[in-house]
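DM between two lab members

TW: hey, do you still have the RNA methyltransferase entry open?
JB: yeah, one sec
JB: this one, 413 aa:
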Amino acid sequence: MSTRFTIARLGSQGDGIASAEGGEVFIPFTLPGETVTAARQNGRATLMSVLEASPLRIDPACRHFTECGGCALQHYEAEAYRQWKREKVVQALKVKGIACDIAALVPCAPHSRRRVTFSARRTEAGMLLGFVRALSSEIIPIEECPISLPAIVGALDKLRALAGLVCATPKTFHMTVTVTASGLDIAVQDAGKLGDSQRRIASNFVMAEGLARLSVDGEIIVEPKKPVVQFGSVAVAVPPGAFLQATEAAEQTMASLVGQHLARAKKVADLFAGCGSFALRLAAKSEVHAAEGDAPALAALDRAFRFASGLKRVTSERRDLFRRPLTFKELNAFDGLVFDPPRAGAEDQSKQIARSDVPLVAAVSCNPVTLARDLRILIDGGYALKSVTPIDQFLWSPHVEAVALLEKPKQRR
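TW: and the structure you got?
JB:
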C-alpha cells in the first residue's frame, strides 16, 4: 500500500528524507519539497509517483536511471546538485569543529569515467552484463551509460561476449574495464577457473578485437598491448586491477592543487602512492619517496621512474601504512607530504604527521567524514588549514573527493 510523503531534505546517499510516524523514511529519486506516494518498508520506501514535483527536478540523462543501481541524482538540476555535493564536505568539517572556506565544487563532465566495474552472470537467456539494482542482487543489463567514456559504451557488445567466454561459474562475477592509451584493459574477478580451451578462445577474441589485456583474478591471460596511462609526462604500465582515479580530469585537478602547494618542497613523501599519479608528477621538481602497500602498483611506479627522463630521484618503499605508518621522526626528513588513503582514511598516519615538523601537507580524500577526522588530528597538532577543494569525479552519485592543503611553521631541526 502506498503512502503520501513530503520530502524535507536529501540524505547523505542522495535519498529524499520524509518525516513520518515511526521515524524518518528514506525515499530514493525524490527531491526536497516534493510530495510523493511511496510504498514503505520500515525506514525505506519505493517511489510510486511524484504528486508535486520540485522546480529543480529535471529529466534524467539515461534510460536506466532508477534501475541500474549506479546514479542517484540524475533528476537533480545541475547547480543544486553541485551545491549539495559541496555541502557534504562543509558539514563533515563542521561536525569536527573545523572552520575553513570551502571552494566551489570542481564539476565532473558526462562521458568521462575511464574505469567501470560491471557485474555479469550467465542465464538461460544468455549473458547478462550491467550494474546491480540498489539493495538487490538483480543485474540490470545496460545499453548506454552517460557517465562512461564512449570507448567503454561502444564496446558493450564485445564485453558481453568476452564475459561469456571467461564465465566458468553460475554465480555473479565482475569485470572491471579501464580505458588506457593502449586500449581497453579488462580485469575479471570471481568468474571461476578457466580451462585450457577457454583460455585459448578468450585470448584469440581479445587479440582479434584489439583489446589491450585480459586478466582473471590477477593472472594475465593475454596482453597484446601493455596497458599504459600517463601521469604528467611519465607513461606508466599499470598492473591488472590497479587503482586509478575514476576520471583523468579529476586526477589532473588533484595533481595540480597538490603540485602547486608542494612546489617549494625539495624532498616530498607520497603516502598511499599507488602507481605514482602524484609521485611521478612531483618528481619533475622534487625528490620523492613513495610508500605503498600494494607490491604490483609500487613496482609499476618504480619501473616508470627508471624509464623516464628529466625527473628528480624517486625512491619507493613497500609498507602497510595502516599497520606501520611512517613515524614523525622519519617524516622529519621531508619538507613536503601528500597522502591519499582509501575511504577508511589515515588516522594513525595522521597522528604521526601531526607530531612531525613537515611544513607543507596535502591531504587527498574520497570520504569527507574520514577526511574531517584526519584534518582535526592535523590541526590539533599545529597545522593551519589553508584551503579545501571538493572535486566531483563520480557524477550523479553521493561520492565526493576533496583536496585539503595545510601548513605548519617550520621548526629548527
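TW: got it. The chain has a mean pLDDT of 96. The first strand starts at residue 2 and ends at 10.
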